[in-house]
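Here comes my example:
=====
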Amino acid sequence: MLNTLLKPEHDKLGASFTEFGGWEMPVRYGSDIDEHHSVRNSCGLFDISHMAEIRVTGQAEEFLDYALISKLSEIENGRAKYTMICDDQGGIIDDLIVYRLDDDEFMIVANAGNQHQVVEALKNRLENFPDTRVADESGRWSLIAMQGPKTKEILGTLVDVDLTVLKYYSIASAVLDGKDVFLARTGYTGEDGFEIFVEGDPSGVWQLLLSQEGVSPCGLACRDTLRLEAGMPLYGHELNKDLTPFAANLGKVIRFDKPSFVGKEALEQRKSPKQKLFGLQGDGRRAARADYEIFLPGGTDSIGMVTSGVLSPTLQVPIALALLNADAGLEIGSEVEADVRGTRIFYKVVELPFYKRGR
Protein backbone atom coordinates (compact mmCIF):
# COMPACT_ATOMS: atom_id res chain seq x y z
CA MET A 1 0.00 0.00 0.00
CA LEU A 2 0.99 3.60 -0.56
CA ASN A 3 1.64 5.98 2.34
CA THR A 4 1.26 9.74 2.54
CA LEU A 5 4.17 11.91 3.66
CA LEU A 6 2.36 12.38 6.98
CA LYS A 7 2.57 8.69 7.92
CA PRO A 8 5.25 9.36 10.62
CA GLU A 9 2.98 12.01 12.16
CA HIS A 10 0.09 9.55 12.33
CA ASP A 11 2.33 6.93 13.90
CA LYS A 12 3.37 9.39 16.62
CA LEU A 13 -0.30 10.07 17.35
CA GLY A 14 -1.03 6.34 17.74
CA ALA A 15 -3.37 6.14 14.75
CA SER A 16 -5.03 2.92 13.61
CA PHE A 17 -4.83 2.38 9.86
CA THR A 18 -6.95 0.91 7.09
CA GLU A 19 -6.58 0.36 3.35
CA PHE A 20 -8.45 2.90 1.23
CA GLY A 21 -8.05 3.29 -2.52
CA GLY A 22 -4.68 1.55 -2.41
CA TRP A 23 -3.41 3.75 0.44
CA GLU A 24 -2.74 3.01 4.11
CA MET A 25 -4.75 5.75 5.80
CA PRO A 26 -5.48 6.66 9.44
CA VAL A 27 -8.97 5.40 10.25
CA ARG A 28 -8.98 6.79 13.79
CA TYR A 29 -6.69 8.15 16.50
CA GLY A 30 -8.93 7.32 19.45
CA SER A 31 -12.72 7.46 19.50
CA ASP A 32 -14.66 7.70 16.22
CA ILE A 33 -17.48 9.48 18.06
CA ASP A 34 -15.19 12.04 19.71
CA GLU A 35 -13.54 12.81 16.37
CA HIS A 36 -16.94 13.20 14.71
CA HIS A 37 -18.13 15.65 17.37
CA SER A 38 -14.87 17.61 17.22
CA VAL A 39 -15.68 18.46 13.60
CA ARG A 40 -19.31 19.30 14.33
CA ASN A 41 -18.42 21.49 17.34
CA SER A 42 -14.87 22.79 16.88
CA CYS A 43 -12.26 21.80 14.29
CA GLY A 44 -10.97 18.48 12.95
CA LEU A 45 -7.78 17.91 10.97
CA PHE A 46 -7.63 15.26 8.23
CA ASP A 47 -4.80 13.97 6.07
CA ILE A 48 -6.41 13.52 2.64
CA SER A 49 -3.17 13.40 0.67
CA HIS A 50 -4.34 10.19 -1.00
CA MET A 51 -6.57 12.30 -3.25
CA ALA A 52 -5.36 12.89 -6.82
CA GLU A 53 -4.45 16.30 -8.23
CA ILE A 54 -4.53 16.81 -12.00
CA ARG A 55 -3.55 20.10 -13.64
CA VAL A 56 -5.06 21.10 -17.00
CA THR A 57 -3.51 23.98 -18.94
CA GLY A 58 -3.68 25.56 -22.41
CA GLN A 59 -7.04 25.38 -24.17
CA ALA A 60 -8.33 24.22 -20.82
CA GLU A 61 -11.85 25.58 -20.51
CA GLU A 62 -12.96 24.36 -23.95
CA PHE A 63 -11.40 20.98 -23.26
CA LEU A 64 -13.03 20.57 -19.85
CA ASP A 65 -16.43 21.58 -21.24
CA TYR A 66 -16.05 18.63 -23.64
CA ALA A 67 -14.43 16.15 -21.23
CA LEU A 68 -16.72 16.71 -18.19
CA ILE A 69 -20.49 16.96 -17.83
CA SER A 70 -20.63 20.49 -16.36
CA LYS A 71 -19.83 23.86 -17.93
CA LEU A 72 -16.40 24.64 -16.52
CA SER A 73 -15.88 27.64 -18.78
CA GLU A 74 -18.34 29.52 -16.57
CA ILE A 75 -16.14 29.27 -13.48
CA GLU A 76 -14.44 32.54 -12.57
CA ASN A 77 -10.77 32.60 -11.59
CA GLY A 78 -10.40 31.49 -7.99
CA ARG A 79 -13.68 29.57 -7.91
CA ALA A 80 -14.54 25.86 -7.95
CA LYS A 81 -17.28 23.51 -9.14
CA TYR A 82 -18.44 20.01 -8.25
CA THR A 83 -18.77 17.86 -11.36
CA MET A 84 -18.28 14.37 -12.79
CA ILE A 85 -16.45 12.62 -15.58
CA CYS A 86 -18.61 10.05 -17.37
CA ASP A 87 -17.94 7.42 -20.02
CA ASP A 88 -19.60 7.18 -23.44
CA GLN A 89 -22.57 5.36 -21.88
CA GLY A 90 -23.13 8.00 -19.22
CA GLY A 91 -21.66 5.89 -16.42
CA ILE A 92 -19.80 7.77 -13.69
CA ILE A 93 -16.01 7.30 -13.84
CA ASP A 94 -15.56 9.63 -10.87
CA ASP A 95 -16.93 12.70 -9.15
CA LEU A 96 -14.55 15.66 -9.05
CA ILE A 97 -13.89 19.12 -7.69
CA VAL A 98 -12.49 21.44 -10.36
CA TYR A 99 -10.71 24.65 -9.32
CA ARG A 100 -9.94 27.46 -11.77
CA LEU A 101 -6.53 28.86 -10.85
CA ASP A 102 -6.17 31.24 -13.82
CA ASP A 103 -7.62 31.99 -17.24
CA ASP A 104 -6.08 28.90 -18.83
CA GLU A 105 -5.21 26.79 -15.77
CA PHE A 106 -7.40 24.39 -13.78
CA MET A 107 -6.75 21.93 -10.95
CA ILE A 108 -8.90 18.79 -10.69
CA VAL A 109 -9.14 16.79 -7.47
CA ALA A 110 -10.19 13.18 -8.02
CA ASN A 111 -10.74 10.23 -5.70
CA ALA A 112 -7.65 8.21 -4.83
CA GLY A 113 -8.92 4.90 -6.17
CA ASN A 114 -9.88 6.48 -9.50
CA GLN A 115 -6.71 8.47 -10.13
CA HIS A 116 -5.43 6.43 -13.07
CA GLN A 117 -8.85 5.99 -14.68
CA VAL A 118 -9.50 9.75 -14.57
CA VAL A 119 -6.07 10.68 -15.94
CA GLU A 120 -6.39 8.10 -18.72
CA ALA A 121 -9.90 9.25 -19.64
CA LEU A 122 -8.83 12.89 -19.76
CA LYS A 123 -5.80 12.17 -21.91
CA ASN A 124 -7.89 10.04 -24.28
CA ARG A 125 -10.12 13.08 -24.87
CA LEU A 126 -7.29 15.41 -25.96
CA GLU A 127 -7.40 14.51 -29.66
CA ASN A 128 -9.14 17.70 -30.80
CA PHE A 129 -7.31 19.91 -28.29
CA PRO A 130 -3.64 19.94 -29.38
CA ASP A 131 -2.80 22.97 -27.23
CA THR A 132 -4.12 21.43 -24.02
CA ARG A 133 -1.98 19.57 -21.49
CA VAL A 134 -3.13 17.17 -18.76
CA ALA A 135 -0.54 16.57 -16.01
CA ASP A 136 -0.97 14.18 -13.09
CA GLU A 137 0.54 16.12 -10.17
CA SER A 138 -0.61 13.77 -7.41
CA GLY A 139 2.96 13.11 -6.29
CA ARG A 140 3.64 16.82 -5.97
CA TRP A 141 0.91 17.75 -3.49
CA SER A 142 -0.17 16.83 0.00
CA LEU A 143 -3.72 17.76 0.98
CA ILE A 144 -4.82 18.60 4.52
CA ALA A 145 -8.45 19.31 5.43
CA MET A 146 -9.47 21.53 8.35
CA GLN A 147 -13.20 21.19 8.97
CA GLY A 148 -15.54 22.57 11.60
CA PRO A 149 -17.26 25.77 12.79
CA LYS A 150 -14.08 27.18 14.39
CA THR A 151 -11.82 26.51 11.39
CA LYS A 152 -11.98 29.99 9.86
CA GLU A 153 -11.20 31.60 13.20
CA ILE A 154 -8.25 29.29 13.91
CA LEU A 155 -6.74 29.20 10.43
CA GLY A 156 -7.25 32.93 9.91
CA THR A 157 -4.59 33.76 12.53
CA LEU A 158 -1.98 31.63 10.72
CA VAL A 159 -2.21 32.80 7.11
CA ASP A 160 -1.58 36.04 5.26
CA VAL A 161 -5.00 36.31 3.60
CA ASP A 162 -8.41 37.42 4.88
CA LEU A 163 -10.48 34.23 5.08
CA THR A 164 -13.68 36.15 5.76
CA VAL A 165 -13.80 37.23 2.09
CA LEU A 166 -12.90 33.81 0.66
CA LYS A 167 -16.28 32.44 -0.42
CA TYR A 168 -17.48 28.85 -0.26
CA TYR A 169 -16.09 26.90 -3.25
CA SER A 170 -13.23 29.37 -3.74
CA ILE A 171 -9.45 28.92 -3.80
CA ALA A 172 -6.62 31.36 -3.08
CA SER A 173 -2.84 31.41 -2.73
CA ALA A 174 -1.49 31.95 0.78
CA VAL A 175 1.57 31.53 2.97
CA LEU A 176 1.26 29.09 5.88
CA ASP A 177 4.18 28.11 8.12
CA GLY A 178 6.47 29.88 5.64
CA LYS A 179 5.25 27.74 2.73
CA ASP A 180 3.30 28.77 -0.35
CA VAL A 181 -0.02 26.88 -0.29
CA PHE A 182 -3.45 26.92 -1.87
CA LEU A 183 -6.42 27.36 0.47
CA ALA A 184 -9.70 25.97 -0.90
CA ARG A 185 -12.93 26.62 0.97
CA THR A 186 -14.30 23.17 0.26
CA GLY A 187 -14.81 19.97 2.23
CA TYR A 188 -16.56 16.64 2.65
CA THR A 189 -18.11 16.91 6.11
CA GLY A 190 -21.10 19.25 5.85
CA GLU A 191 -19.22 21.85 7.90
CA ASP A 192 -17.39 25.02 6.93
CA GLY A 193 -13.70 24.47 6.41
CA PHE A 194 -10.68 24.52 4.14
CA GLU A 195 -8.62 22.05 2.16
CA ILE A 196 -4.95 23.03 2.07
CA PHE A 197 -2.67 22.10 -0.85
CA VAL A 198 0.94 21.81 0.32
CA GLU A 199 3.95 21.16 -1.91
CA GLY A 200 6.82 19.10 -0.53
CA ASP A 201 6.98 18.02 3.11
CA PRO A 202 3.70 18.93 4.86
CA SER A 203 4.85 17.90 8.36
CA GLY A 204 5.49 21.44 9.59
CA VAL A 205 2.08 22.63 8.41
CA TRP A 206 0.38 19.61 10.01
CA GLN A 207 2.17 20.15 13.33
CA LEU A 208 1.39 23.87 13.36
CA LEU A 209 -2.31 23.31 12.69
CA LEU A 210 -2.56 20.51 15.23
CA SER A 211 -0.91 22.65 17.91
CA GLN A 212 -3.77 25.16 17.81
CA GLU A 213 -6.31 25.06 20.62
CA GLY A 214 -9.51 23.29 19.58
CA VAL A 215 -7.99 21.26 16.73
CA SER A 216 -8.17 17.45 16.85
CA PRO A 217 -6.72 14.85 14.44
CA CYS A 218 -9.47 12.90 12.68
CA GLY A 219 -9.51 9.69 10.65
CA LEU A 220 -11.49 8.19 7.80
CA ALA A 221 -14.09 6.60 10.09
CA CYS A 222 -15.55 9.90 11.24
CA ARG A 223 -15.06 11.42 7.78
CA ASP A 224 -17.48 8.76 6.53
CA THR A 225 -20.12 9.40 9.20
CA LEU A 226 -19.82 13.15 8.66
CA ARG A 227 -20.27 12.97 4.88
CA LEU A 228 -23.17 10.52 5.28
CA GLU A 229 -25.01 12.87 7.66
CA ALA A 230 -24.45 15.60 5.05
CA GLY A 231 -25.94 13.35 2.34
CA MET A 232 -22.73 13.39 0.29
CA PRO A 233 -22.14 10.42 -2.05
CA LEU A 234 -19.04 8.22 -1.88
CA TYR A 235 -17.67 6.65 -5.03
CA GLY A 236 -17.99 2.87 -4.88
CA HIS A 237 -21.11 3.18 -2.74
CA GLU A 238 -23.55 5.75 -4.16
CA LEU A 239 -21.63 6.30 -7.41
CA ASN A 240 -20.10 3.87 -9.92
CA LYS A 241 -19.74 3.22 -13.66
CA ASP A 242 -23.06 1.37 -13.79
CA LEU A 243 -24.92 4.44 -12.57
CA THR A 244 -25.60 7.81 -14.17
CA PRO A 245 -25.77 11.12 -12.26
CA PHE A 246 -29.57 10.85 -12.51
CA ALA A 247 -29.57 7.74 -10.32
CA ALA A 248 -27.73 9.71 -7.62
CA ASN A 249 -30.17 12.66 -7.95
CA LEU A 250 -27.34 14.73 -9.41
CA GLY A 251 -28.75 15.33 -12.86
CA LYS A 252 -28.58 19.09 -12.17
CA VAL A 253 -24.79 18.84 -12.49
CA ILE A 254 -25.17 18.00 -16.20
CA ARG A 255 -25.24 20.88 -18.68
CA PHE A 256 -27.11 19.72 -21.75
CA ASP A 257 -26.91 23.22 -23.25
CA LYS A 258 -23.28 22.55 -24.24
CA PRO A 259 -22.86 21.67 -27.94
CA SER A 260 -21.18 18.37 -27.10
CA PHE A 261 -19.51 16.47 -24.29
CA VAL A 262 -18.54 12.87 -23.67
CA GLY A 263 -21.63 10.88 -22.71
CA LYS A 264 -24.18 13.53 -23.75
CA GLU A 265 -26.20 11.34 -26.11
CA ALA A 266 -26.32 8.43 -23.67
CA LEU A 267 -27.31 10.67 -20.76
CA GLU A 268 -30.15 12.18 -22.79
CA GLN A 269 -31.52 8.63 -23.16
CA ARG A 270 -31.02 7.69 -19.49
CA LYS A 271 -32.86 10.48 -17.67
CA SER A 272 -35.26 8.01 -16.05
CA PRO A 273 -33.11 5.49 -14.16
CA LYS A 274 -34.50 2.19 -12.90
CA GLN A 275 -33.11 2.90 -9.44
CA LYS A 276 -32.69 6.18 -7.55
CA LEU A 277 -30.92 7.21 -4.39
CA PHE A 278 -33.10 7.80 -1.31
CA GLY A 279 -32.39 9.00 2.21
CA LEU A 280 -33.77 6.75 4.98
CA GLN A 281 -34.09 7.45 8.69
CA GLY A 282 -35.02 4.90 11.35
CA ASP A 283 -35.76 4.55 15.04
CA GLY A 284 -33.86 2.80 17.80
CA ARG A 285 -30.16 1.97 17.73
CA ARG A 286 -29.76 -0.71 15.04
CA ALA A 287 -28.42 0.62 11.75
CA ALA A 288 -28.76 -0.95 8.32
CA ARG A 289 -25.32 -1.13 6.70
CA ALA A 290 -24.17 -1.24 3.09
CA ASP A 291 -25.70 -4.08 1.04
CA TYR A 292 -28.58 -4.70 3.47
CA GLU A 293 -31.80 -5.23 1.52
CA ILE A 294 -34.81 -2.89 1.64
CA PHE A 295 -38.47 -4.01 1.36
CA LEU A 296 -41.86 -2.37 1.29
CA PRO A 297 -43.69 -3.04 4.60
CA GLY A 298 -44.64 -6.72 4.68
CA GLY A 299 -43.22 -7.25 1.19
CA THR A 300 -41.27 -10.30 0.11
CA ASP A 301 -39.42 -8.84 -2.87
CA SER A 302 -36.44 -6.58 -2.32
CA ILE A 303 -36.79 -3.09 -3.81
CA GLY A 304 -33.09 -2.27 -3.48
CA MET A 305 -30.15 -2.08 -1.14
CA VAL A 306 -28.49 0.25 1.34
CA THR A 307 -25.37 1.87 -0.11
CA SER A 308 -24.20 3.50 3.16
CA GLY A 309 -25.67 3.29 6.64
CA VAL A 310 -24.75 4.22 10.22
CA LEU A 311 -26.12 5.19 13.61
CA SER A 312 -25.79 8.97 13.25
CA PRO A 313 -23.53 10.40 16.01
CA THR A 314 -25.16 13.83 15.63
CA LEU A 315 -28.82 12.84 15.30
CA GLN A 316 -28.65 9.66 17.44
CA VAL A 317 -30.87 7.71 15.02
CA PRO A 318 -30.06 5.23 12.22
CA ILE A 319 -29.63 6.85 8.80
CA ALA A 320 -28.92 5.35 5.40
CA LEU A 321 -28.56 6.10 1.73
CA ALA A 322 -30.15 3.44 -0.47
CA LEU A 323 -30.55 2.73 -4.18
CA LEU A 324 -34.20 1.74 -4.55
CA ASN A 325 -36.51 0.93 -7.45
CA ALA A 326 -37.77 4.12 -9.03
CA ASP A 327 -41.16 2.51 -9.69
CA ALA A 328 -41.73 1.55 -6.02
CA GLY A 329 -43.89 4.63 -5.50
CA LEU A 330 -41.71 6.08 -2.74
CA GLU A 331 -41.93 9.70 -1.64
CA ILE A 332 -40.96 11.72 1.44
CA GLY A 333 -42.63 10.04 4.42
CA SER A 334 -43.00 6.62 2.79
CA GLU A 335 -42.27 3.69 5.08
CA VAL A 336 -39.89 0.83 4.23
CA GLU A 337 -38.19 -2.00 6.09
CA ALA A 338 -34.51 -2.91 6.19
CA ASP A 339 -33.45 -6.51 6.71
CA VAL A 340 -30.87 -6.18 9.50
CA ARG A 341 -29.45 -9.66 9.98
CA GLY A 342 -32.81 -11.33 9.62
CA THR A 343 -34.88 -8.74 11.50
CA ARG A 344 -37.04 -6.17 9.74
CA ILE A 345 -36.25 -2.64 10.94
CA PHE A 346 -38.54 0.32 10.25
CA TYR A 347 -37.25 3.24 8.17
CA LYS A 348 -38.96 6.15 6.48
CA VAL A 349 -37.96 8.14 3.44
CA VAL A 350 -36.67 11.61 4.39
CA GLU A 351 -35.30 14.64 2.62
CA LEU A 352 -31.55 14.94 2.19
CA PRO A 353 -29.29 15.98 3.75
CA PHE A 354 -29.92 14.39 7.13
CA TYR A 355 -27.86 17.16 8.77
CA LYS A 356 -27.38 20.74 7.62
CA ARG A 357 -25.18 23.17 9.49
CA GLY A 358 -26.50 26.52 10.63
CA ARG A 359 -25.42 29.47 8.49
About this structure: The domain at 7-51+140-229 is CATH 3.30.1360.120 (Gyrase A; domain 2). The mean pLDDT is 97. Residues 187 and 193 are 6 Å apart (CA to CA). The two ends are 40 Å apart (CA to CA).
